[in-house]
């Protein structure tokens, strides 16, 4: 609910102690809003939000979104969910619960408050896509019973819930389908390709390519993504999404490895490991809708974003080596 004497909003960010959520909260606080972070610290860390402790407009709640939450806010960004395959496969049942029960609780909260709610969905709803690049109208190619399904199907069901609350209860929803994103505060051990390669290069360890390294991904720098989130949240009730947010510049995993090696001056060799089951062969967002609706497109090229990410992990090195 709007404050009596000023226009700043009180905003709930679930999963705010994670990689993307912490950058989002930084931006919202910079804009002058009050921010409540609800996070169970499953994959997020206090380190990501250390700099916010003592901030007069910031509040942290250790809370699991699979349980009801009663707070008073003007907007909700629902990001809570482990995002890397290593993390979401650690306790797959909890992953589905987080997406599904978490969505129900946050939608129930939004319904009571009559406030806007944003969902961090994912390109994984497209599965191993048979259409390339992936437009929002593509329904996807997802294995419902594989090791990635807890995440993919959980996120698909969350989208269903968002659209049903929208149709049934008139909720104002904003659904973003996020493609691979990277940047400072990624978890160093979450197994994602950018953090893996950078940490391996900085430690002088072999760079692990899964499969032949010819599979592709499109990597978006976190600041660009957060800009897209905020623009989507600021749209009127006619915009619900889903809207793809990602960087359409597509690279093979081998190209990424070569860039990281060149940039860090590492002596690391490239080694090949088995490709995980159901690993998508290619992924590239079609972002025409985001360009048109939000006037948004990524601005930070892979090299520039990697420089900043390498600098972050370089500063962490003493700790990683300890
Ligand atoms: P992350 O793991 O760094 O952050 C997720 C946060 O959610 C963590 O702080 C974690 O502790 C919290 N969390 C997990 N389960 C919870 C629960 N039950 N209750 C409360 N908090 C819980 O991941 P991220 O990369 O920052 O991803 C944020 C969101 O964006 C996720 O919903 C993810 O699915 C989505 N996304 C991310 C990417 C990407 O490339 N990083 C791509 C597509 C979608
Ligand atoms: N809920 C919540 N906070 C609120 C309101 C609701 O966490 O402020 C949860 C509550 O646990 C409920 C869920 O959201 O189970 C769905 O709410 P809804 O009103 O849609 O359904 P109902 O209460 O009828 O189950
Ligand atoms: N990958 C790799 N080496 C690693 C980690 C990942 O070759 O050390 C590959 C992985 O098999 C996939 C791509 O890089 O093809 C992106 O993996 P990530 O887990 O970052 O994201 P997702 O598969 O969810 O897009």
UniProtKB/TrEMBL annotation:
Domain NAD(P)-binding: from-to ranges: 12-308
Annotated pathway: Nucleotide-sugar biosynthesis; UDP-alpha-D-xylose biosynthesis; UDP-alpha-D-xylose from UDP-alpha-D-glucuronate: step 1/1
Main location: cytoplasm
Single GO BP term: D-xylose metabolic process
Subcellular location, record wording: Cytoplasm; Golgi apparatus, Golgi stack membrane
InterPro entries the record matches: NAD(P)-bd_dom (IPR016040), NAD(P)-bd_dom_sf (IPR036291), UXS-like (IPR044516)
GO MF terms held by the record: NAD+ binding; UDP-glucuronate decarboxylase activity
Membrane topology value: Single-pass type II membrane protein
Lineage: superkingdom: Bacteria
Pfam families: GDP_Man_Dehyd
Key words of the record: Cytoplasm, Decarboxylase, Golgi apparatus, Lyase, Membrane, NAD, Signal-anchor, Transmembrane, Transmembrane helix
Gene Ontology CC annotation, any one: cytoplasm
EC number: 4.1.1.35
Names of required cofactors: NAD(+)
Family per record: Belongs to the NAD(P)-dependent epimerase/dehydratase family. UDP-glucuronic acid decarboxylase subfamily.
Entry protein name: UDP-glucuronate decarboxylase
Source organism (scientific name): Celeribacter ethanolicus
């Amino acid at each position: 609910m709007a404050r009596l004497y000023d226009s700043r909003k009180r905003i709930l960010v679930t999963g705010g102690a994670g990689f993307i959520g912490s950058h989002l909260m930084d931006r919202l606080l910079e804009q002058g809003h009050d921010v409540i972070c609800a996070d169970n610290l499953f994959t997020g860390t206090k380190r990501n939000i250390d700099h916010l402790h003592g901030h007069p407009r910031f509040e942290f709640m250790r809370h699991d979104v699979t349980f009801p939450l009663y707070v008073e806010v003007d907007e909700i960004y629902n990001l809570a969910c482990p995002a890397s395959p290593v993390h979401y496969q650690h306790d797959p049942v909890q992953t589905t619960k987080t997406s599904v029960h978490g969505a129900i609780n946050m939608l129930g909260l939004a319904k009571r408050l009559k406030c806007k709610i944003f969902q961090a969905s994912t390109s994984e709803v497209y599965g191993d896509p048979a259409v390339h690049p992936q437009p929002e109208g593509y329904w996807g190619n997802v294995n419902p019973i594989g090791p990635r399904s807890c995440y993919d199907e959980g996120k698909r069901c969350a989208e269903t819930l968002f659209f049903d609350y929208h149709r049934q209860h008139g909720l104002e929803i904003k659904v973003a389908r996020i493609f691979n994103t990277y940047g400072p505060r990624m978890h160093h051990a979450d197994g994602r390709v950018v953090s893996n390669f950078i940490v391996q290069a900085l430690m002088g360890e072999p760079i692990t390519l899964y499969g032949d390294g010819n599979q592709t991904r499109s990597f978006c720098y976190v600041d660009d993504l957060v800009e897209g989130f905020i623009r989507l949240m600021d749209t009127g009730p006619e915009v619900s999404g889903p809207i793809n947010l990602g960087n359409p510049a597509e690279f093979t995993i081998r190209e990424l490895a070569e860039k990281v090696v060149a940039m860090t001056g590492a002596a690391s060799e490239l080694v090949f490991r088995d490709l995980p089951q159901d690993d998508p062969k290619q992924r590239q967002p079609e972002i025409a809708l985001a360009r048109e609706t939000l006037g948004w497109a990524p601005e930070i090229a892979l090299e520039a974003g990697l420089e900043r990410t390498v600098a972050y992990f370089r500063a962490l090195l003493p700790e990683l080596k300890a």
